[in-house]
Amino acid sequence: MEIKYPIIILISVIVFFVFFFLNKDKKEKVRNKNKIANTSIIKNTSEFKNIIKKYRFFLYFIYVLVFICVLSSSLLSSRIVEEKTISNEIYNRDIMLCMDVSGSVIELDADLINTYLDVVKGLKGERFGISIFNTSSVLILPLTDDYEYINDTLINLAKGMDLMIDYDSHPEFSTTERIYYSEYIYYGTTVGSKNRGSSLTGDGLASCIYDFPNLDEKRSRVIIYSTDNEVAGTEYINVTDAAKLAKKKNITVHAINPSNSTYDYDNHIAKLKDAAKITGGNYYVYEDGKTVSNVINEIEKQEKSILKGPVKTSITDYPSVPLLITIISFIGLIVIDKVVLSW
Questions:
Q1: Cα-based angle 84, 89, 91 (whole degrees, multiple of 5)
Q2: Is residue 285 over pLDDT 80?
Q3: Whose CA is closest to 201, among 135, 107, 128?
Q4: Domains along the chain?
Q5: Closest-CA residue to 100 (of 133, 138, 141)
Q6: Which of 115, 191, 273, 281 gets the highest tally of CB atoms within 10 A of its CB?
Q7: According to the model, what pLDDT value does residue 55 have?
Q8: What is the pLDDT of residue 17?
């Protein structure tokens, strides 16, 4: 803490002592004036002596209270403050969830969402976004560090996925809520499904890459890519080429698969593993929440820079103590004036 304007205290104290000595000099002049004769008898009485003692005691007490009042009020005026310089550090890491929401992986997604809700609690400055895809891709959460908004979006996704898994097992949802949360998943992700099929994983990954803004800006970028890579249609870009594009844009892709059991290992799992490897990421088979924890640990190992945010100066005033002292001393002066000196 420090006093912002100490000169005010100095001036107040000087004024007080100047007033004190001028008043004292005035009393000396009064004593040298002509005095009333034959007052010695009264002055020698015990009653008179007690009155004089009481008067002098309270007079000096008044001086003390006035001095305290002047000092505390000058402290109040001079401002007792605490000044802090805050430099905000911003982590320049962006994390994007890229989620296949086709029927074959929806149960995986539902489990992942519950884990991501815990992951968000541990974020410190990173930006977080969510892209979902089936036939087409939809950015439902642009990159943001508004973790309350992220949390709300994940909860809405979880509700929609629960309805996709078992539409009739959630009587707590009204008809309107069922439509809303179901559309939260379906709306936009099945555009062109009649002609192009579903689960177009390469298109989903490529679209997610361009959901990162300002790709020319140097930042740490990560995609957590959940899919079984079982393509059932015609893609514009396959997952291998999408991974090469991610590598070109310096984006690391970590792939999570619901299982290693598939009817076409070479076309599905092997290509998904290779896609993650191309970008410098890893391939995971989902088991439980530990899988996501492992992914997050890998992300934490990835180099990230700390950007210096704007420097802010915070000034906090502490007026309560001098204000309280001023009020108490002022009340003391009033009490002496109105009560004590009237005895």
A1: 165
A2: yes
A3: 135
A4: 2-83+317-342 (no CATH), 93-304 (3.40.50.410)
A5: 133
A6: 281
A7: 76
A8: 79
